[in-house]
Amino acid sequence: MDPKQTLDSQGYSLDSQSYRAPKDLLAGKIIAVTGASDGIGAVAAKTFASYGATVILIGRTVPKLEQVYDAIETAGGTQPAIYPICLEGASEKDYEDMHDRLEETFGHLDGLLHNAGELGQRTPIVSYKLATWQKVMQVNVTAEFMMTKALLPLLEKSDSASLIFTTSGVGRVGKPYWGAYAVSKFATEGLAQVLAHELDDTSNIRVNCINPGSTRTRMRATAFPAENPATVKTPEEIMPSYLFLMGNESEDVTGQSLNAQ
Ligand code: NDP
């Protein structure tokens, strides 16, 4: 099956569960993952490494990043790299430094998964705190913009680069009490669409969004404290879509927003 043919007219569905990646899918690729310390990002980093990639683990909590690093090495993956940064406080200069450090070490980037995210409050807009709003928008949108802007020159040096943004169902249809989180995901979808158009035909970079769907992580447990975690998928179960978008089999897919389940 060619997964590209299963995109529906809205571009929202991909039969990702049936995608079976070849074991060497990402061999030789340099891929950066934000929020690689926990949840979906940690599993995506380990999965990309297990399919041959050299992974750059971007995050703010170094001991947790080190655990992911150790797991990759223990599993026999290519030696990863850790890049510590707090997306809430980082400045444009910090992202320029990130570009310079990654260029010195790796020369180019084949993939960037924007995965880090803040949930914020689950309250009505009328009682939403400005400080929380600003934090969520900074981490979920402005940091993505700054990092993408700084790292585009490294992605442009790849023969075939994949830029992936993480969205959510509430980033497509607004729902009550999701506040800045929902708004930030609408903005992320918009940023991805703008970039996809700008880079189409002028670069080798494809730009897509991925909606993980309900996934068993700390964020999900915080958003739905009464839910039995066993009833939602694990990050490992949603990896086929991530692999599809990161590997060359999605070379012709850009400007899409896919569902991982
Ligand atoms: P987790 O809360 O498990 O992980 C979030 C990650 O983002 C962690 O690595 C965390 O780092 C990092 N992060 C948060 N704030 C910052 C910051 N200021 N600087 C650097 N890193 C930061 O969330 P999930 O794995 O569930 O979510 C991953 C992505 O998937 C998010 O974009 C989320 O919105 C999206 N999503 C998740 C769904 C789900 O059901 N789980 C559903 C739909 C979308 P640290 O470990 O240091 O806290």
Low-confidence stretches: 1-12
Beta content comes to: 5-15%
Mean pLDDT: 94
Structural class: alpha/beta
Number of helical regions: 7
Please tally the β strands and state the result.
7
- The percentage helix is 25-40%
Output the strand order for the largest sheet.
3-2-1-4-5-6-7
The arrangement of helices and strands along the chain is EHEHEHEHEHEHHE
Largest sheet properties: 7 strands, parallel
What ligands are attached or bound here?
NADPH dihydro-nicotinamide-adenine-dinucleotide phosphate
Kindly report the oligomeric state of this protein.
single chain
Which word captures the global form? globular
Write out key terms for the chains shown.
seven-stranded parallel sheet, 13% strand, alpha/beta, 261 residues, binds NADPH dihydro-nicotinamide-adenine-dinucleotide phosphate, single chain, globular
Fold blueprint:
Elements: E1 30-34, H1 39-50, E2 54-59, H2 62-74, E3 81-84, H3 92-106, E4 111-114, H4 130-156, E5 161-166, H5 179-199, E6 205-211, H6 218-223, H7 239-246, E7 257-259
Helix pairs in contact: 1-2, 1-7, 3-4, 4-5
The protein binds NADPH dihydro-nicotinamide-adenine-dinucleotide phosphate (NDP).
Summary of the model, kept short:
The protein has 261 residues and is α/β, with parallel strands linked by helices.
Commentary on this structure:
The chain has 261 residues and is an alpha/beta fold. It has seven helices and seven strands. It has helices at residues 39-50, 62-74, 92-106, 130-156, 179-199, 218-223, 239-246; strands spanning 30-34, 54-59, 81-84, 111-114, 161-166, 205-211, 257-259. A seven-stranded parallel beta sheet has the order 3-2-1-4-5-6-7, with helices on both faces. Helix 2 links the parallel strand 2 (54-59) and strand 3 (81-84). Helix 1 (39-50) packs across helix 7 and helix 4 packs parallel to helix 5. The model is unreliable at 1-12 (pLDDT under 50).
